């Protein structure tokens, strides 16, 4: 059988970097082909070539056995190739039908949009592939999981047969992720073919038909899920043994470092995003904030680091009120901040790596002597941190904006964790990182906790929250709906809370499920 897609000898070079080194990849019809690799391994570059965003320096692409010259995304779409991006490309104030029609508008006599015909076809696609969605709903009113279905419908509406899923579960609850996997299986059962990019090893083993691992621009090998486990895949990705389970000592919390009282914060549209939130974080503990992206976590982090105005409520840091303090005051008081948006809030992209590594303290000794920057120390500091945190950069003089996303994240983590701190506010600290880097950063966060640092961890990665946190608070629609201990927390419980189920009702549902399972097991 002829593969639906073949990449042969794909090579792509950037200044100082060989991103893709003669990569071969074959996608069979009706299969899910997972693509794994460290951050900066070349996965995204490869998909950008396939989607027409980059032109390869060498190599060929074949679709259904025929050579394919892709010059732009419109060429890819015309040949039945579509991509579901991690960050949705939807217009919130438009309906599902209007979003799906964009770029494929059909008109009625008189020049009016033929929404009725488009809505009918959307309903047909929804039924055929198990993508339940109301064509007349506004995007802003839909849960994240349903918005992702709209993205998939957009591709099917354009008759895509090859679908690229780029980190598709990053913004989903565990239950929504399971629903997505069922949809993916339904798509392949009806002849569609999927390239699945993710860094979550468990998901790859659960849903993929074949797994290809890329390391430093080269294909290391392909394996069947039945031939691999998480440890083997992690070793293939990183080139060494990786500890997937953290060795975590019990927390020894002491004095309160961060205290938040009845905090109210609005978003850019002046709508309440944080609605009367109260909590405290003590030295020597990690408080994890779980929740689907968009439930007020971003605004909460910005408020407690001085980046966003507070409408009401109070913030205390080591006993002193800092409700309206500017970010520099938080930094000088011993707060480290790993921001959610690394490019907007964490880096000055045109600046070299060495200068980004001293952004918080550039005006203080030993980086400065009076008004004079001590460049020799700046370079020594950068060289040490680049090696210690495995920042993949051609040199310390390279602009931060030219690094891959994960290496940009490593620059921020290295800068924030390499100075004395009392409080670490970490928002999505391992987003875009490979398993080796995640292992290292998690160990560093735990090390700071054990040294007495208070850690506020905000993450949409439930595995990360479960592994690191000593207590877990769940945010839903701007409120903290429940706080549970690490001992009580299970993925099922936290997943239900993330979906808005009240704590007692969630406990009851899990108890019923457990009882039913035990009854069925006993009957067998």
What does this protein look like?
Keywords: ATP-binding, Cell membrane, Membrane, Nucleotide-binding, Repeat, Translocase, Transport. GO terms for molecular function: ATP binding; ATP hydrolysis activity. This protein has 524 residues and is an alpha/beta fold. It has three domains: 5-238, Rossmann fold, CATH 3.40.50.300; 247-334 and 422-489, 3-Layer(aba) Sandwich (Rossmann fold), CATH 3.40.50; 345-419, no CATH class. 35% of the residues lie in helices and 24% in strands. The protein is built from 18 helices and 22 strands. The chain has helices at 43-50, 73-78, 96-101, 115-129, 144-157, 174-189, 201-207, 230-238, 297-304, 327-332, 342-346, 353-356, 375-388, 405-417, 435-450, 462-468, 491-498, 503-523; strands at residues 5-14, 17-27, 32-37, 58-63, 66-67, 81-84, 162-166, 193-197, 210-215, 218-223, 256-266, 272-282, 286-290, 312-317, 320-321, 335-338, 368-369, 372-373, 423-427, 454-458, 471-476, 479-485. The strands form five sheets. Strands 6-7-8-3-9-10 form a six-stranded mixed beta sheet, with helices on both faces. Strand 1 (5-14) and strand 2 (17-27) form a beta hairpin. Helix 17 (491-498) packs across helix 18. The longest helix has 21 residues, at 503-523. The two termini are 43 Å apart. The model has no long low-confidence stretch (mean pLDDT 88).
């Amino acid at each position: 059988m002829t593969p639906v897609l073949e990449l042969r000898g794909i090579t792509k070079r950037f200044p100082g970097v060989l991103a893709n080194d003669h990569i071969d990849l074959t996608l069979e019809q009706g299969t899910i082909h997972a693509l794994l690799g460290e951050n900066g391994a070349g996965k995204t570059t490869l998909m950008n070539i396939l989607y027409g965003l980059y032109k390869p320096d060498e190599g060929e692409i074949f679709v259904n056995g025929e050579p394919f010259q892709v010059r732009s995304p419109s060429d890819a779409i015309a040949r039945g190739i579509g991509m579901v991006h991690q960050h949705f490309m939807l217009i919130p104030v438009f309906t599902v039908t209007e979003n799906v029609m964009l770029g494929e508008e059909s008109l009625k006599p008189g020049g009016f949009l033929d929404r009725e015909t488009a809505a009918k076809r959307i309903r047909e696609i929804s039924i055929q592939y198990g993508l339940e969605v109301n064509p007349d709903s506004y995007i802003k009113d839909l849960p994240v999981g349903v918005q992702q279905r709209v993205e998939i419908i957009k591709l099917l509406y354009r008759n895509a047969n090859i679908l690229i899923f780029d980190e598709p579960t990053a913004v989903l609850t565990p239950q929504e992720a399971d629903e997505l996997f069922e949809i993916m299986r339904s798509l392949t059962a009806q002849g569609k073919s999927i390239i699945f990019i993710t860094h979550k090893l468990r998901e790859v083993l659960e849903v993929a038909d074949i797994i290809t691992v890329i390391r430093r621009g080269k294909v290391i090998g392909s394996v069947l899920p039945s031939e691999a486990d998480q440890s083997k895949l992690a070793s293939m990705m990183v080139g060494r043994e990786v500890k997937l389970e953290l060795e975590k000592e019990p927390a020894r919390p002491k004095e309160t470092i961060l205290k938040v009282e009845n905090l109210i914060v609005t978003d850019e549209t002046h709508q309440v995003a944080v609605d009367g939130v109260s909590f405290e974080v003590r030295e020597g503990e990690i408080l994890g904030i779980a929740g689907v992206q968009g439930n007020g976590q971003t605004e909460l982090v910005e408020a407690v680091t001085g980046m966003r105005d507070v409408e009401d409520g109070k913030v205390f840091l080591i006993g002193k009120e800092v409700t309206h303090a500017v970010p520099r005051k938080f930094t000088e008081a011993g707060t480290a901040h790993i921001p959610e948006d690394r490019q907007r809030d964490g880096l000055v992209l045109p600046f070299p790596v060495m200068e980004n590594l001293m952004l918080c303290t550039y005006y203080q000794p030993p980086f400065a002597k009076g008004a004079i920057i001590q460049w020799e120390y700046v370079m020594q500091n950068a060289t040490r941190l680049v090696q210690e945190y495995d920042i993949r950069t051609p040199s310390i003089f390279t602009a931060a904006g030219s690094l891959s996303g994960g290496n940009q994240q490593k620059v921020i983590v290295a800068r924030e964790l390499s100075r004395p701190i009392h409080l670490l506010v970490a928002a999505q600290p391992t987003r875009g990182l490979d398993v080796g880097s995640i292992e290292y950063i998690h160990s560093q966060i735990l090390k700071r906790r054990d040294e007495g640092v208070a850690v506020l961890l905000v993450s949409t990665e439930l595995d990360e929250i479960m592994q690191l946190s000593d207590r877990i608070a769940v945010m839903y629609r701007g409120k903290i709906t429940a706080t549970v201990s690490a001992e009580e927390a299970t993925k099922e419980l936290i997943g239900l809370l993330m979906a808005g189920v009240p704590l007692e009702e969630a406990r009851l549902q899990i108890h019923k499920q457990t009882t039913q399972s035990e009854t069925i097991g006993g009957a067998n």
